[in-house]
Amino acid sequence: MEMEQSGMFMPAQTVGTVLCCICGVAMPPNPANMCVRCLRSRVDITEGLIRHAAIVYCPECHSYLQPPRTWIRGLEPESKELLAFCLRRLRLPQRRIRLVHAEFIWTEPHSKRLRLRLRVQAEALHGAILEQAHMVELTVHDRLCDNCTRAQANPDQWSAVVQLRQLVQHRRTFFYLEQLILRHGAAVRAIRIAEADHGLDFFFGSRSHATKFVDFINGVAPIRFRNDKQLVSHDVKSSIYNYKHTFSVEISPVCREDLICLPPKLANALGNLGPLVLCTRVTNSIALLDPLTLRSAFLDANQYWRAPFKSLLTSRQLVEYIVLDIEVESAEVHIGGSKYVMAHAQVARITDFGKNDTMFTIRTHLGHLLNPGDYALGYDLYSANNNDFDIDQHKNLVLPETILVKKSYQEKQSKKRGKARTWKVKNLNMEVDTTSKGRNDEKRNTEYEEFLRDLEENPEMRFNISLYRNKEYQPSEAASTADGDDIPSIPLEELLADLDLSEDEGNQNGENMDE
Amino acid sequence: MLLNNPQEMTISLSAGVQFENNCEVGVFSKLTNAYCLVAIGGSESFYSVFESELADVIPVVKTSIAGTRIIGRLCAGNKNGLLLPHTTTDQELQHLRNSLPDGVVVQRIDERLSALGNCIACNDHVALTHPDLDRETEELIADVLGVEVFRQTIAGNILVGSYCAFSNKGGLVHPHTSIEDLDELSTLLQVPLVAGTVNRGSEVIASGMTVNDWTAFCGSDTTATELSVIESVFKLRDAQPNIIVDEMRKSLIDSYV
Question: Which residues form the signal peptide (chain B) (predicted)?
């Protein structure tokens, strides 16, 4: 070739025909000087190859065994992964034989046979390369893999349990955690999820799954936990011990919007933060805000559990107030992603409003939200009866009469009560013990409603949660666009379209429209 | 397989010849129109094959060259002369001078390529040589053997003496020779050539068989197809046959290759 390109004259070379030395048929010359048929009849290059082999298949989890102990999943029938797997089992001698082509021959799946047709090339005598087709039949033996045997023997067998508890009177935390767990898929390996009072139990098949789950919770809530194990069985000969592991996880009882009176030591340690603080956010650390000075602090989980404290008043004790007058005092302050404005306000309790003249003049941090005539929720310290050890510890403490916590949309939301929302959330499938005493379904439902309302009002809470578009929602004609003040609702861009895999409707792929 | 003709010169083709269980007849013998050289072997059967065919016509000489038995590949010759490599001992040279007919010039030449049988292929009129042969050797060949010398390659191989065998009637060359090469060589040699194999597909023609104008000897592995090709190209069949044999032949053979 190169000689031709360099301009040298190459005379034409036509290959002549020779007679095959065995059968005498005219053929172009080849290294063996025999025609292909004679060569094939003399030399069988597939001599050493195996023609029958066996593979093991688990009918439960549809996996194939790769000896000695690995089970490979995801091998579809007549797929190229299955072809590669079968070829590996055949143990072709790579030095002598070259595999040119391999394909499946269709067999009925119930026949438990796989047929392959291979084309191999190998050197026959005198350097002539011969290509030959070779058929292999693989027998499929059914055998349950180890995991399936164990699962079938005792389907509820768990070896690790994570017991999440929070000693408060509401289940808001667990609703929120449920959404977080769904979003991050932390409980996919859980065998069972059961509801217990004050918390949830997650059952896992192995200790490592449970540890991973506990690590996940550690990253989203301020917890302390301990790990214990119980001996189930013991194999003397191989010294293998089987345990049941229990992780007791306690979440701190401090929740969002709680009023807390800090113990004096902690208040000093945090820079003399006014003993009364509001808890603004709980992730794996607790964010505290002093409503009267707009100072904030963060408490790590370790810091909290070294000197744990309880809330003074929780959000169940929130009382509704009406704002009579408001006077902005300071400029906007940004703390931890939210803005606050210090203001003086004159408020009266709704129960007092119109009936008597009880009014309170207070300082509040919600100056940016409130206008005269608005409703707000706050803690009524004026009439609260506190039996807290920490408060008594503080000498010369003057309690404000009211601390406002958030704006209330109660009145407007009463119009919307009963109407469907544009969005919905998914739920974990928990086993709920319906027969135990002390369960109050109605209370549960109201708490859930409040949780959903919370989600609507707080964009930062929605950050880690997947919300799905509610298909059953139809906007009514009498849409309340005439409402003066907008009720906070979730904008459409935040909602995910739910992935619908049913065949009768058109394909709706779940596009992630997250911000 | 033997085709006999009751004439003075029996034209024959001997197949099934083996030298100590080796089918490479051309390595251990050298056949020309004037004489035949045979290697000193273990058993006499090899010698006796040649004896039985040629004893009346030409001398069959047992010899060694340079102490080896591969005499067919070391020497080159025709009816006019015989060329021996420089490694031939004096006794061998003398023995050959004594045994061969007087008309044959026996010459020992000094050539770097000492396997003359591999380098030179000749009949009584033309010789093909290795392209790297010395000038003096070429002149010597022309003198001693009385031939026209051409430097050639066969199917890209420089060892022309191994890959072709030709007599004054025809020739057999390496199977991979292209048609153009075949035509060119045929023109040079002025004999019909065919590309084929010997000894069941072996490409080394001159090792597998040895031939002169009326006889050919082939190794035992040669298949019937190869034999028929050899017969036809060296014209070993088309002699004047006996009438009886002719009639028999007509009924036995249905097609000529």
Answer: none
What are the tens digits of pLDDT across the range A132-148?
Answer: 899 999 999 999 988 88
H or E stretch including A389? helix A389-393
**pLDDT tens track for B194-226:** 999 999 888 899 999 999 999 999 988 898 888
Higher pLDDT, B245 or A443: A443
Phi/psi for B249 (5° steps) reads -60, -40
Amino acid occupying residue A64: Y
Per DSSP, helices labelled H in A431-511 are 441-457
A194-223 residue pLDDT tens: 888 889 999 998 899 999 999 999 999 999
Count Cβ atoms within 10 A of the Cβ of residue A210 and give its class: 0-12 exposed, 13-18 middle, 19 or more buried: buried
| pLDDT score for B62 | 93
- For residue A201, CA distances in Å to A76, A246, A436 come to 36, 10, 16
Q: Position of tokens 């790990």? A: A227
Distances from the Cα of A220 to the Cα of A215, A283, A430, angstroms: 9, 5, 20
B180:A14 CB<8 A: yes
pLDDT (0 to 100) of residue A358: 84
What single string gives the DSSP state of each residue in chain B?
A: ------SSS--EEEEEE-BTTB--HHHHEEE-SS-EEEE--SSSHHHHHHHHHHTTTS-EEEE-BTTBS-HHHH-EE-SSEEEE-TT--HHHHHHHHHHS-TTSEEEE---SS--HHHHEEE-SSEEEE-TT--HHHHHHHHHHH--EEEE--BTTBS-HHHHEEE-SS-EEE-TT-BHHHHHHHHHHHTS-EEE--BTTTBS-HHHHEEE-SSEEEEETT--HHHHHHHHHHTT-S-S---HHHHHHHHHH-----
Nearest CA in chain B to A15: B178
- Is residue A263 within 8 A of residue A307, CB to CB? The reply is yes
Averaged pLDDT of chain A:
82
As to burial, measured by CB atoms within 10 angstroms (0-12 exposed, 13-18 middle, 19+ buried), residue B123 is buried
Does pTM top 0.80 for this prediction?
no
CB contact under 8 Å between A21 and B176, yes or no, is no
Q: Report the residue from B180, B197, B225 with minimal CB separation from A12.
A: B180
CA distance B106 to B83: 6
B228 at interface of A, judged by CB pairs closer than 8 A? yes
Q: What is the DSSP letter of A195?
A: E
Residue A263 CA to residue B169 CA, distance in Å, equals: 125
Residues in chain B within 8 Å Cβ distance of A29? 175-176, 195
Rounded CA separation B126/B150 (Å): 8
